Amino acid sequence: MTREEELFRRRLLDLADTAWNRNIVTFTDFLNLNEQNIYHDTQPELSFLESRMSGGYECAERQMVAFIPDALSYEENFSPEATDRLFPIRCLVIRPQNPRFAETLSHRDYLGSLMNLGIDRGKLGDIVIQNQEAFLFCEEKMAEYLTGKLTRVRHTAVVCEESEQGIRNWKPKLEEISGTVASVRLDALLSLAFRASRSSLSGLIEGGKVFVNGRLVTGNGFHPREGDIVSVRGYGRFRYCGVSANATKKGRYYVKLEKYV
Fold it and tell me: What does the pLDDT look like over 90-104, one tens digit per residue?
């Protein structure tokens, strides 16, 4: 573990101690996949209280952790269904002022414009692009600032405002992918999801770029479970939905995936 990673681990423990000693809920910033992996590895030291994660919508990649002391975790307001509503997260929509003259903007374009405003990356969650709009999940205290300051992405004038759908009703778009694999191993599922050979993708796993439910996986032979979310840096993510039919005569398995687009 690097010095930076050790400092992050200590920060998690400090937040947990604060929640326990002061009997309040504490929150991290939005965590990237590596930070989530550290959080999962630190679970044995955090077992003295409850913790939950949310990124503002189901299966978000960047997520906050809430540390909830036992005295509060049993109260009705802190039921699993209600916890998501208590995270200090807002959903903003960024759209061009004039769609006819708007550029085709990438995730990097939106993130670059946000970073140019001097915002800490940890205050921002996922940025999900759908057609000419981008949905941005951010810390609650940043919402007003962003709606007033974000007026341009690259050369395109934009409007940034809170999403009318509301954060609890927002759903990402999914592409259903089905096909056959020789075995339900992680490298085979990556090949199906990203339409590339297993050999060309195996280096991603060995190179520490593949996470399952926020945990780093470094073995090609790992077998995901139904419902697992697989995230690959630089490629995207998908949900493994399980084996959809019996094996073929050649012993291959029919599987179904849902890819986030």
Answer: 999 999 999 999 999
